[in-house]
């Protein structure tokens, strides 16, 4: 089979020239989601996020129907091995090497980069050209795209443009500007708001001796940017135009050949030569290396003054923690954050402050997992630049003190290429240097387990193109202008989906009622459900109903919600131990602990104040009637706490 995703979805048999009929748009979207992750087992939740803008009432049933339809369309019945198989927690599309055009594109692009790095420019141009020839239009064109497929489509577009820029860099380095123009013309027409492409086209036209056409590209870009975004062209476009208008300056002596890593002084720093690393809004394009610069130097130098100026591009940093293969749920929250990100990215030219999103909730509610998943999705969508930083601030780490922002800043600065002996002593100076290093690079920063503004404020970038995700067990605080997401327990469906992702979809489906009972006994707390699932996975002969019966006794439930050194009790304990004594007493009182008396209340209104403080600590929940209550597992934890 051959799968085409770089345009409208098309599937051919090996010897076929006519695409197979694949059914309706939703069924085609399901196939696209599987083909994009060919030979991987993908969850039902991922397929739903890929093929539906809004989740259906019965996603599992709908997806099974579409998968069965695809098996018929792919003539999968009777094939050995099967192409489309059910494998907990979802499905797997099996392909051979070279059957999916996305895979072929990435392989050719990687070969092109390796060839360019080795100075083999002709080979690099061949690989890049074949990679771009695979594109037939916008990826997944004509399909209904849920959040997951939207992110994949955006990522593929960014990869296409990055490879195109690398290809153009190679062509110009070989003295082939007319071919570079041929590559760039349709891309500039398709993406008229991409100033980087317009700047490349202007350079290529200028080197081809077509200066009037190059200046017309600038006028068109100026008009489109003003009409669509209400902004003026960037410094890069303006600098290219200025060089075209001014023309080359004559020199009385021959210009020296370019040395590796050097550029002419007449070429401003904000207008990097084609193929050189440069900060961009969004994903950084692939770059040509010293070998390419050396190859360029071998050509006769134009009559320009070329005093060498060393370039030291800042290093790319991609330090996000690994995502979880068993992540499920939180579709509404993810959709909300992605909408904020798309809004912020679309308005970057007019933005005055970074987008900061603070995710709060009680211990064990899944803040970190959600933030990590969001960070990876944002990066894959091309909304982050080449700096992606992560820090665990240890606000509630067992046996650890919270991290000092000065320590985090020192680590970030080292990652950004600052020598240890160049890092300032004070927090203020470190923060200033940190913001300077991030300027213009559209960084994505993930700050996990934060206690409050004292930890986050020094770590916030100053560049308005920045994106910051923060997790905290404390509510009621956030940087000015930040968006907040308050997480609650899972729904029943999300809880069962998590059980299926860990334990296996078939095992859970066979005992659906027992799975729902386990979710209820865990209070639908994601950590509790995950720990229950891990225990069940380690005991494949257990019935889910038997394990639910083991969780029924309240005095043993927390002990049985533990696995691999993690437990619900420990998660609660790290928050409780950081409370002052009067709040501890109120928590025990709310749990019905006899030793708590009235929580140490001595004056009217004090109880309300204490409960409000516990609400800010995300340790109590407000009821619709305006009262306060504890999560069921937290009630069991606090009920038997000793005084103190």
Number of helices: 26
Q: Report the mean per-residue pLDDT as an integer.
A: 83
By helix and strand content, what is the structural category?
alpha/beta
How would you sum up the global shape?
globular
Residues in helices, as a percent range: 40-55%
Reading side by side through the largest sheet, how are the strands ordered? 8-10-11-12-9-13
Q: In oligomeric terms, what are we looking at?
A: single chain
Number of strands: 17
Gap from first CA to last CA: 68 Å
Largest sheet: 6 strands, parallel
Q: Residue ranges: pLDDT <50 for 5 or more in a row? A: 249-312
Give Rg in angstroms: 29 Å
Q: Beta-strand percentage?
A: 5-15%
Please outline what is shown here.
The protein is α/β, with parallel strands linked by helices. Helix content is 48%, strand content 9%. The strands form six sheets. Strands 8-10-11-12-9-13 form a six-stranded parallel β-sheet, sandwiched between helices. The chain has a three-stranded antiparallel β-sheet with strand order 3-5-4. Strands 1-2 form a two-stranded antiparallel sheet.
